[in-house]
Amino acid sequence: MKVLVTGAAGFIGSHVVICLLESGYDVFAIDNFSNSVEDDFLQKDKSGLGGAESLKRVSELTGKDIPFAKCDLKNEQEVEKLFKTQKFDAIIHLAALKAVAKSVETPLEYYSNNLIGSLNLLNMCKNYGVKKFIFSSSATVYGLPKELPIREDSPTGQGLTNTYGQTKFMVEKILMDLAKAEKDWDIVILRYFNPVGAHPSGRIGEDPLGLPNNLMPFVAQVCIGRLPVLKIYGDKFDTPDGTGIRDYIHIMDLARGHVSALDHIKKNKQIGCEIYNLGTGKGYSVLEMVAALEKASGRKIPIEISAQRPVDVARMYCDPSLAYEKLGWRCEYGLSEMCRDLWNWQINNPYGYTKPLAEQV
Ligand code: WQD
């Protein structure tokens, strides 16, 4: 089965690709490098992976080739060319801009990239009869949760405070409407909680361009001394230690969830549109996460309490039981493995995929 993975060079994408390849799926990878490293040095690289250093390493780790194309989903001609030259059996659509604060400052860029990109892809899928579709959504669509743990039938779309969350919510609606109108689609929406960690090899991991937006990549860069201090956004939340609680999930568990969803689609015909939370069901606070990485690294992480973000949720964690019941998927890793693997990646790749200036020839 040949799977087109969009956003394949990114943090989630590279881990999903490695799990697909190790499960016997064939992968065609595309990325536009809006949030991953395109290294000119690699353009001349024989692997044909162009600038996708992350995928080059996935290819090394699996010993498998990864056909790859640079493609911007906003460009209809580029997308059409893909479907004209390749035969796909399924799509795993991960490509999206995901910086929450930036999405509020540049809504048009986010609607254009996340919505128009998804619509171009879906139209091409329809035209070329590719109707098995897995979509990367986010716990952000739950807005300010009224009930905990969050279940797939918990309210969505209310109190969405950022354009990023709106775009995820809107693409979910498009997929639900599509499955209602056309019965031959097999669609799975995966709502990610907070992915953390790295492949146990330490060869691939999270490498945000610029300052990390999310907690754990920021903490990891403070831990190796690349950033001076972690600013904790508020310690007056209604939580045991006053800091925000989230459902952190090991990136390998999250990636395996995509393989389980694909296996499910392969086994069951015309499922319509199904939705699953991908989380552990356990919440940890910011201070607990800092302590866990200090334990894994043996280092002290400097922190300072700063202002709470304008709209920040005190607690978010899910009920992951539906994914176990229907997909046979559940998390295998806990907090210590998340921090063990995050530390292993960060200490071995202090500057992510980019070489420090000193090492660049
Ligand atoms: C987690 C906790 C912060 C940074 C994100 C976005 C989006 C989504 C994942 C994909 C909160 C605290 C953070 C820092 C801090 N991705 N924090 N100092 O809030 O769940 O939002 O979820 O869909 O990226 O929606 O994750 O990592 O931003 O914050 O104190 O420098 O860490 O207050 O309590 P969140 P986060």
UniProtKB/TrEMBL annotation:
What Pfam families does the annotation carry?
GDP_Man_Dehyd
Q: What pathway, per the record?
A: Carbohydrate metabolism; galactose metabolism
- What is one term from the GO cellular component aspect held by the record? cytosol
The answer, when asked if DNA damage is one of the entry's keywords, is no
Q: Which UniProt keywords apply?
A: Carbohydrate metabolism, Galactose metabolism, Isomerase, NAD
What is catalysed by this protein? UDP-N-acetyl-alpha-D-glucosamine = UDP-N-acetyl-alpha-D-galactosamine; UDP-alpha-D-glucose = UDP-alpha-D-galactose
Instruction: Return one GO MF term.
Output: UDP-glucose 4-epimerase activity
Keyword Repressor attached: no
Q: Name the EC number(s).
A: 5.1.3.2
Q: Which domain of life is it from?
A: Eukaryota
User: What GO terms in the biological process aspect are recorded for it?
Assistant: galactose catabolic process via UDP-galactose, Leloir pathway
Q: What broad class of enzyme is this?
A: isomerase
Q: Where is the NAD(P)-binding domain?
A: 4-341
Enumerate the cofactors the protein uses: NAD(+)
Question: InterPro entries annotated for this entry?
Answer: NAD(P)-bd_dom (IPR016040), NAD(P)-bd_dom_sf (IPR036291), UDP_G4E (IPR005886)
**Assembly, per entry:** Homodimer.
Stated family: Belongs to the NAD(P)-dependent epimerase/dehydratase family.
Q: What does this protein do?
A: Catalyzes two distinct but analogous reactions: the reversible epimerization of UDP-glucose to UDP-galactose and the reversible epimerization of UDP-N-acetylglucosamine to UDP-N-acetylgalactosamine. The reaction with UDP-Gal plays a critical role in the Leloir pathway of galactose catabolism in which galactose is converted to the glycolytic intermediate glucose 6-phosphate. It contributes to the catabolism of dietary galactose and enables the endogenous biosynthesis of both UDP-Gal and UDP-GalNAc when exogenous sources are limited.
Q: Which PANTHER family match?
A: UDP-GLUCOSE 4-EPIMERASE (PTHR43725)
Identify this protein by name: UDP-glucose 4-epimerase
